[in-house]
């Protein structure tokens, strides 16, 4: 590094095509633009310079990981590699930041990171599904305990925080909620005019992950295929007869498909995940499980539908009576909150 940067960041993932990487990129661009600083981002494979609304590879000969899912080693070793990187720059008296892979349960990151580490958006959700394995048992009981411990730790480190969603809001004490801005992901909403022909009935982002509610969704898809609706899939292969699988493709390609898509189905645990926001920006209609009714505050009602996945009549009625909606919401208030946060840190 021939030039000194204003901030040195660690990111476990800085990909353009995975959720954590997209989140880190957006946050780094915002941080650099509003604070008017140059940022060095270190990842396990590729290093970057972020400045003036640009992200530039520094060692461009290196390849990024293209897998949809990280393996065990990548998920659990990379954070410790990042902590070591931050300590090196802390002793060099550089300003430092831990950008992503920041679930609120991960006590090691918040406890072991150097003093004055700035943290990017905190992630996580409360697991409320049935316990059917050791992993689900730990998510339900151990994670809730770690949430409480880590909240005390993080507010000793940094006064205010961004959380990527509001999925953890119910387990956070009110005294802490005043110091949190929820739903950073909403900054990705950028509605655009869509003149594309909508010739894909349903586009699914499929993840074979145990917290996803895929069983009922797959039954719903089978009903739709049997009623002559076409179903396309990106992500993990979906073994449903009649579905067209694109596999793991770049986000730009996914967005080009969403521009031609009538409906997507929200994955279940996060109503504002990046795929759902990309679909909303592209003019697609969004199907939610009815448990989310009354909880969606930032999407126009003309573009969303709440259903019981077992209610065949209602589902078919929605698809058959589809009408496009061009409603828009005013996000100026969210943009102002975002600007004030970055100016204050």
What's the average pLDDT?
87
Strand content: 15-25%
> How many distinct helices?
10
The CATH C-level class name of the largest domain: Alpha Beta
Structural class: alpha/beta
- Give the SSE order as H and E letters: EHEEEHEHEHEHEEHEEHEHEEHH
Overall CATH architecture of the largest domain: 3-Layer(aba) Sandwich
- What is the CATH fold-level name of the largest domain? Rossmann fold
User: Tell me about the biggest sheet?
Assistant: 6 strands, mixed
The number of domains is 2
- Pick out the low-confidence regions: 324-328
Shape: globular
What's the Cα radius of gyration? 21 Å
By DSSP, the count of extended strands is 14
Helix content: 25-40%
Question: How would you explain this protein's 3D organization?
Answer:
- With 345 residues, this protein is of the alpha/beta class.
- Helices cover 35% and strands 16% of the residues.
- The chain folds into 2 domains: 7-188 and 334-344, Rossmann fold; 200-320, 3-Layer(aba) Sandwich (Rossmann fold).
- It is built from 10 helices and 14 strands.
- It has a 6-stranded mixed β-sheet, with helices on both faces.
- β9, α6 and β10 form a beta-alpha-beta unit.
- It starts with 6 loop residues before the first strand and ends with a helix.
């Amino acid at each position: 590094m021939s030039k000194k940067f204003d901030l040195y960041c660690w990111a476990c993932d800085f990909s353009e095509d995975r959720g954590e990487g997209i989140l880190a990129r957006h946050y780094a661009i915002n941080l650099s633009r509003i604070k008017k600083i140059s940022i060095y981002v270190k990842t396990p494979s590729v290093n970057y310079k972020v400045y003036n609304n640009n992200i530039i590879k520094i060692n461009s000969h290196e390849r990024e990981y293209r897998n949809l899912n990280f393996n065990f080693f990548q998920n659990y070793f990379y954070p410790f590699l990042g902590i070591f990187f931050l300590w090196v720059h802390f002793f060099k008296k550089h300003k430092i930041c831990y950008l992503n892979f920041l679930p609120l349960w991960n006590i090691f990151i918040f406890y072991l990171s150097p003093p004055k580490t700035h943290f990017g958006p905190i992630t996580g959700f409360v697991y409320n599904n049935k316990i059917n394995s050791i992993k689900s048992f730990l998510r339900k009981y151990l994670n809730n305990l770690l949430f409480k411990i880590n909240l005390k730790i993080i507010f000793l480190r940094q006064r205010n925080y961004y959380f990527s969603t509001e999925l953890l809001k119910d387990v956070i004490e009110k005294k802490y909620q005043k110091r949190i801005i929820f739903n950073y992901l909403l900054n990705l909403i950028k509605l655009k005019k869509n003149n594309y022909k909508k010739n894909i009935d349903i586009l699914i982002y499929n993840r074979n992950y145990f917290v996803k509610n895929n069983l009922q969704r797959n039954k719903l898809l089978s009903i739709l295929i049997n009623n002559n609706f076409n179903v396309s899939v990106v992500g993990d292969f979906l073994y449903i007869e009649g579905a067209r699988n694109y596999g793991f493709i770049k986000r730009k390609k996914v967005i080009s498909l969403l521009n031609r898509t009538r409906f997507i189905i929200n994955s279940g645990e996060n109503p504002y995940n990046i795929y759902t926001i990309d679909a909303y920006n592209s003019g697609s209609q969004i199907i939610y499980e009815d448990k989310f009714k009354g909880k969606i505050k930032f999407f126009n009602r003309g573009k969303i539908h709440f259903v019981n996945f077992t209610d065949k009549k209602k589902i078919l009625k929605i698809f058959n009576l589809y009408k496009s909606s061009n409603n828009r919401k005013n996000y100026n208030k969210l943009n102002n909150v975002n600007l004030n946060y970055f100016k204050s840190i």
